[in-house]
Amino acid sequence: xxxxxxxxxxxxxxxxxxxxxxxxxxxxxxxxxxxxxxxxxxxxxxxxxxxxxxxxxxxxxxxxxxxxxxxxxxxxxxxxxxxxxxxxxxxxxxxxxxxxxxxxx
Length: 105
Description:
The protein has helices at residues 39-50, 54-67, 77-93, and strands spanning 4-5, 8-9, 26-32, 69-76, 99-104. Strands 4-3-5 form a 3-stranded antiparallel β-sheet. Strands 1-2 form a two-stranded antiparallel sheet. The chain has a domain at 35-105: CATH 3.30.1390.10. It is α+β, with helices and mostly antiparallel strands. It contains 3 helices and 5 strands; from the N terminus they run E-E-E-H-H-E-H-E. A hairpin with a 2-residue loop joins strand 1 (4-5) and strand 2 (8-9).
């Protein structure tokens, strides 16, 4: 049997009805076009880092190529930053100047 204390048992959960959970802000990871990074490398990065299938990766890559930038994914700040850093690391390792930025949604 649970012990009573001011009308609340040990098994009751007290919640504040006025408290609401707020979602963290989201950020787009945006790939920027350049004249040196190969389309094949951009496709590979989009598939490996952002886990898009080949069709989605092709669409994003073409947007980067034609419009100068394209959204590879949308995440919370820490995840977006980590993915952007991974892209830049892979590009550096392959001697490509591919850059990506974060844009707050």
